[in-house]
Write a structure and sequence with these properties.
By secondary structure, this protein is an alpha/beta fold. The protein contains seven helices and eleven strands.
């Protein structure tokens, strides 16, 4: 099965200017009153969650495992008139790829859940080492405690449209005996009420509990 993060064309299908504006507002509120001028996103992907920072005058850098996603991220930044410094890096090996410090080091897109809970703490320590004195650590996660409590399986998204093509997305979540989860993503493309293309992906997650998050370093935005 193909990896979703090698298919930036698929990954960005549900992105639009409205979602971009919402993320920009999110950062405006979050940054208010904080002395932050530089930010490193160690799971920047195609940039959907942190590219709006460039509009706010923040010096942004990023890293990701997927060269395909980083290529798309650079293209999107250039389209808005920005040159973006990004590099391929596993966030478990930040100490091998970064030496300078930042006012904020972030991991966006629920990315920390891609590694085991033991590795999450190691990643956070590496991120913390790249934060300038008085700076911040930021990460976003799903509400894993609620997910494991309800064990909902099916999630349907509102369709997106590309010209005369309707794009549907359904997620099916499998709960594994070892406590991990598989997120199965099925995209279907419709033209004239007929499915003309299907794309299927599977992502493997390790849920991160609230208890684990409470052991994070100081100055954290969870």
């Amino acid at each position: 099965m193909a990896a979703l993060y090698d298919r930036a064309d698929i990954y960005d299908l549900f992105e639009n200017e409205e979602r971009y504006a919402a993320m920009k507002k999110h950062w405006e509120v979050l940054l208010a009153g904080k002395d932050i001028h530089t930010l490193l996103d160690v799971s920047i992907g195609s940039g959907n969650l942190t590219l709006p920072l460039l509009d706010l005058g923040i010096s942004l850098q990023g890293s990701d495992l997927s060269e395909a996603m980083l290529k798309k991220c650079r293209q999107k930044a250039l389209a808005k008139g920005y040159e973006l410094d990004v590099k391929v890096s596993d966030f478990r090996e930040l100490d091998k790829n970064f030496t300078k410090q930042f006012d904020c080091v972030a991991s966006t897109g629920n990315s920390l859940a891609y590694v085991t809970n033991r590795e999450v703490l190691e990643v956070l320590e590496q991120m913390d080492a790249l934060i300038a004195p008085g700076g911040y650590l930021y990460f976003d996660l799903r509400n894993w405690d609620k997910i494991l409590d309800t064990k909902q399986r099916f999630y349907l998204y509102n369709p997106a449209f590309d010209g005369d093509t309707r794009i549907n997305l359904v997620q099916v979540w499998d709960y594994n005996p070892d406590g991990s989860m598989n997120f199965n993503l099925l995209y279907t493309f419709e033209q004239k009420n007929c499915i003309v293309q299907k794309e299927e992906f599977c992502e493997h997650y390790y849920p991160i509990s609230q208890k684990l998050r409470c052991h994070c370093p100081a100055n954290v935005w969870p």
